[in-house]
Amino acid sequence: MKIVCVGRNYADHARELGNEVPAEPVLFIKPDSAIYPHRYYYIPTFTTDLHYECEIVVRIDRVGKHIAPEFAHTYYSTITLGIDFTARDLQNQLKAKGLPWEKAKGFDGAAVIGKFIPKEQLPPTDQLDFQLHIDGQLRQSGHSAHMLHSIDQLIAHISRYFTLKKGDLIFTGTPAGVGPVAPGMHLTGTLCGHQILELFIKS
């Protein structure tokens, strides 16, 4: 399986990082080894500026290619939250040199996944709200209605370029409010009132 991630899918996040708001989805891929299945997270030694980016994640149920937007909803049945961890210092160094930045986004442990919820237990996919709290304080708050490209539009777009297979994950983009993590922090993620993600940051 693969992890397809969408960058700059919320205008406020693109602006907070000084990026242009794109006309079409910005895509990048993480390998399956990026998935981190544990509650205790150890910061990699190659970064001193690891940033959290909380976002809605969907899991693909069946193979699809050139999926029409009106049929995209039939390709997934569960939804969760994930954290797209970014080694921001490494990413900035690579971007400044015009180099690919997979090392900053696709390293081991760069994709934390919460508990999946059947989508019939949630509101329609254009009415999903989510929050990330750190040590009990709200750090990120997002709503799927504010996405530049909806979940179904993303699936249709991605499938033009990459065949989607059963088990593939799509990280749909993060809202404003990203920032660094430090040892001792406690992260919790909530999707439509369901707490489905918890992470303890270790040194």
Distance between the termini: 29 Å
- Mean pLDDT, to the nearest integer, reads 95
Counted beta strands: 16
Range of strand content: 35-45%
How would you describe the shape? globular
Report the helical percentage. Answer: 10-25%
Poorly predicted regions: none
Elements, N to C (H/E): EHEEEEEEEHHEEEEHEEEE
Kindly provide the radius of gyration, computed on alpha-carbon positions and rounded to a whole number of angstroms. 16 Å
| Sheet of most strands | 8 strands, mixed
Question: Helical stretch count?
Answer: 4
Helix/strand structural class: alpha+beta
Task: Give your account of this protein's structure.
With 203 residues, the protein is α+β, with helices and mostly antiparallel strands. The chain has helices at 11-16, 88-96, 102-105, 151-161, and strands at 3-7, 26-30, 35-36, 40-42, 50-52, 54-60, 76-84, 86-87, 111-113, 117-118, 129-134, 137-143, 169-171, 179-180, 186-191, 194-202. Strands 1, 2, 3, 6, 7, 9, 10 and 13 form an eight-stranded mixed beta sheet that branches. A five-stranded mixed beta sheet has the order 4-16-15-11-12, with no helix packed on it. The model has no long low-confidence stretch (mean pLDDT 95).
